[in-house]
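Its record is retained below.
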Amino acid sequence: MRRTILTLASFAALIAATLPAAQAHAANDRYCLQGRIWGYPGNCQFASYQQCQASASGTSAYCGVNPRYAFSQQRDY
């Protein structure tokens, strides 16, 4: 009985530890630097449009919404 409880508690802690990390990563890739050099979907590491524009400044690149973010299914909370 004690082993079962310990196993379930460990499993719950593992899930709880990985869930916030996945959500934090999703917020950092909303915009992609796109263009001839970057291809499609491009360099998708920008949390804000302003960050992406700053990186694209002076180049032939442009910024767009990350297709993985734009076309993902919305969750009902």
